[in-house]
Amino acid sequence: MTEQHRKRSREEYEQGLPGYHDPTAGLGGAAPARSALTLRLVLALFGVVVCAGGGLGWLATDLPAWPGVVLLVLGLVAVVDVVVILRRKARGEPG
């Protein structure tokens, strides 16, 4: 049985399979895709800080409130992304 067609264990699925999100995995000698979870976490945390700070700073002015609200909503989306990333890293996915 080849590596791609053997029966996978539950632990392998929990860890994430190499090339799962890459439809061209294994073609032309390309290396399997790896998730850059740590980079994604850093960028999401940066988004939380910038959006929360910008939104609160905008709401402290006399300018229209809708851009500040948009920034706070984007900051909330970044917080959800941080939670998803931390859950994926806790279950042992590489990256």
Comma- or semicolon-separated keywords:
57% helix, elongated, 3 helices, 95 residues, 2 domains, mainly alpha
Q: If you had to describe this structure to a student in words, what would you say it looks like?
A:
The structure is a single chain. With 95 residues, this protein is an all-alpha fold. The mean pLDDT is 83. The chain starts with 9 loop residues before the first helix and ends in a 5-residue tail after the last helix. The relative contact order is 0.16. The radius of gyration is 19 Å and the shape is elongated. The chain has two domains: 34 residues, no CATH class; 61 residues. The longest helix has 25 residues. It is built from three helices and no strands. Helix 2 runs antiparallel to helix 3.
Helix/strand order = HHH
List the uncertain runs: none
Count, helices: 3
Strand count, sense and barrel status of the largest sheet are: none
Average of per-residue pLDDT values:
83
Put the structure in a nutshell.
Helix content is 57%, strand content 0%. The chain has helices spanning 10-15, 37-59, 66-90.
Helices and strands in order:
Blueprint: H1 10-15, H2 37-59, H3 66-90
Helix pairs in contact: 2-3
